[in-house]
Design brief:
There is one protein chain. By secondary structure, the protein is an alpha+beta fold. It has a single domain, classed as Zincin-like, CATH 3.30.2010. Helices cover 42% and strands 15% of the residues. It has helices at residues 4-15, 67-85, 96-109, 113-116, and strands spanning 32-35, 43-49, 53-59. A three-stranded mixed sheet has the order 1-3-2. Helix 2 (67-85) packs antiparallel against helix 3 (96-109). The two termini are 24 Å apart.
Length: 117
Amino acid sequence: MLTPKRLAAVYECLRQYPPFNRYSLPPASGVEFGLVRKNDRSGDYIYFIRNLDSHLIRVNPDWNGHFDSVVMTMAHEMLHLHQRVRRLDSRTEHNADFRAKARRICTRFGWDFKRFV
């Protein structure tokens, strides 16, 4: 069963591996984790401003029934977080920078690029 605590553990694990270990991502304590139950997404990343910058990564348990899909979804959302921290995001959700980095991530972990994006 997915929980925010387990999602934080997956996040921290991925932070130790290239390329995420070079992305200057905040520690799990600086990110909120939760579940999302929308039929149109495997997960999402939300950035919002409260008193400080806040990051929220949510994973859909209905779309991620196996550990490998949870890890891939987390990696996808971590790439969105990286783009936001580095101010590389744009109005296009999966811009050229996202797609280029996604290809490298998929090659590194042996994932299908078409499923990743």
